[in-house]
Amino acid sequence: MTETDKHRQARKRRKARKKAREFSQSLSVRFLAALFSLLSWPLAWLPLSIGLAFGGLVGRLAFTLLSARRKVAVDNIEMVREGGCLDPAIDPVKTARASFINMGRSGWEAIRFYHRGLEPFLPYCSAESGAEYLAEALKEAEDNGRGLMLVTGHIGNWEVMCHYLPWFFNCKLSIVGRSLGSPLANLLVSRMRTDLGNDFIYKKGGAKQMLKVLRHGGVLGTLIDQAAMVNNEGIAAPFLGREAMTNAGPLRLAQRTGVRVIMTLFRREGAHHLMTVLPPLELHDKSEDPEKALREDIVKLNEDLGEYICRYPEQWLWGHKRWKLPRDKHNRRPSA
C-alpha cells in the first residue's frame, strides 16, 4: 500500500468518526428535546395566574443564585442612573430583581407558547399605539415589491410578541437571531420561533439570506440591543448615556435595499402584553458619507429604544454586558 493510499484511508476513517459523532450528538439533542417537552408539558397548562407566579418565583431564584448576572444588572442600572438617563429615585437592586422576575415570567410564557401556540395569549395581547404606521408600511412594501425591516429590543416578552405581530398584521416574519451556543437550546428556540409559519435566520453567516428576504418583499425582524463586537459589525454610538457597540447590520441592509425601518416595542402590564409601533425611521442621506449617515441612523434608533427602556426599566434585560467596547476604545459618555 502506497503512502497516498494510507493517507486516503486515514481521511476516510476521520470522516466516518466525525459522522458518527455528529449522529450521536443529534440523537442526544433530540432525546433531550423530547425529554424537555415531556417534563415541561404540565407547566404549559397551569392557570395563568399560577403560571405567572411560578415564573416570577423562578426569576427571583435566578436573581438570588446567579450572582455574576445579578452584579452585571445592578452595575448597569447604577451606571445609567448616574448618567442621568434613569430617575435618580430608582433603586438599582429592586429594578434588577424586577427585570429577573420579568424574565422568569417570560420563560414560563415561552413554555406555554411552545406547547399551546399563540391562541391562549390572544385575549391578552393588543396594539397600544402606532399600528397604523406598520400597516401603511406593509402596504407600501407590497405595492413596491420591497421588503420591510423591523427592529426591537429585549424588553417585555419579545419572544411571544414576535408571533403576535405577524398574526395581528397578517404577514410572515423572518426572525434573525444569534446562536445560543447550545445545540439543545438552538433546537428548542428555533422550533418556537418558526411556529405559525415564521422563518428563523442565524445572524452569523445569514447576510445573503436576509438580503434575499428583503429583495423578495419579505419582513425581517431583529434585535438591536446586543453588544456587536465581531467582524466589524458594530458601530460605537450613544445608548442610555454611554457609548455602546451597536449592530449596524440591519441598517446597512436597509441602506443597500432601500427598505423602510420600523421599531416595534413590547411591554407587559400584569397578564397583558402591549405593542407600540414607532413611525418609520427617516434614513439620512448616504450619498456624501455613508458611514456618517449610518451612525446618525443608529443614534436615532438607540434614542428611541432608550426612551422606552427608561419608561419601563424593570422590563429590559439588564443582566448582559451591553456596554462592552473594543480594546482600542474606552467606555465613556458620548460627547455633545
Give me the secondary-structure topology.
Blueprint: H1 3-44, H2 48-65, H3 67-82, H4 92-116, E1 125-129, H5 131-144, E2 148-152, H6 158-169, E3 173-177, H7 183-193, E4 199-202, H8 207-215, E5 219-223, E6 234-239, E7 242-247, H9 249-257, E8 260-269, E9 272-277, H10 290-311
Parallel strand pairs: 1-9, 2-5, 2-8, 3-4, 3-5
Antiparallel strand pairs: 6-7, 8-9
SSE order, one letter for each helix or strand = HHHHEHEHEHEHEEEHEEH
Gross geometry = globular
Helix content: 40-55%
Strand order of the largest sheet: 1-9-8-2-5-3-4
Strand percent estimate: 15-25%
User: What is the gyration radius calculated from CA atoms?
Assistant: 22 Å
How many strands in all? Answer: 9
Could you tell me how far the N terminus lies from the C terminus, measured between alpha carbons in angstroms? 74 Å
| Mean pLDDT, all residues | 88
| Unreliable runs | none
**Global structural class:** alpha/beta
Number of helices: 10
The description of the largest β-sheet is:
7 strands, mixed
